[in-house]
Amino acid sequence: MGGYSNHREKVEKALGRKLRKGEIIHHKDHNPRNNDLGNLEVMSQHEHNIELFKGRQALYKYRRELRQKKSPILSDRA
Predict the structure, then answer these.
(1) What residues contact residue 34 under an 8 Å CB cut-off, 6+ apart?
(2) Percent of residues, the chain, with pLDDT higher than 90
(3) CB burial class (10 A; 0-12, 13-18, 19+) of residue 53?
(4) Domain regions of the chain by residue span
(5) What is the pLDDT of residues 10-47, one digit of tens each?
(6) Among candidates 50, 34, 41, which has minimal Cα distance to 19?
(7) Which residues contact 24 (CB under 8 A, 6 or more apart)?
(8) Alpha-carbon distance 70 to 76, whole Å?
(9) Of 23, 25, 28, 73, which is least surrounded by CB within 10 A?
(10) Which residues, at least 6 apart from 27, have a Cβ–Cβ distance to it below 8 Å?
């Protein structure tokens, strides 16, 4: 299908319409291979950027906590 994504097709079929300009399909679990409808969410590019920012903030917090516990999982470079 010329580069058109499977997850877009699934969501469009479920919605009964084509995605509008600016609508993004977000994978809730951040796994682009998990195209189950329950894992897909339609949002604007702005909303998607906010979701990605929240995810990064959670990751940074987790890394800080690991460093404070002196975890061997993370080096100082992480």
Answers:
(1) 27
(2) 36
(3) exposed
(4) 6-68
(5) 999 999 999 999 999 988 888 889 999 999 999 998 88
(6) 41
(7) 42, 43, 44, 45, 47, 48
(8) 10
(9) 73
(10) 7, 34, 35, 39, 40
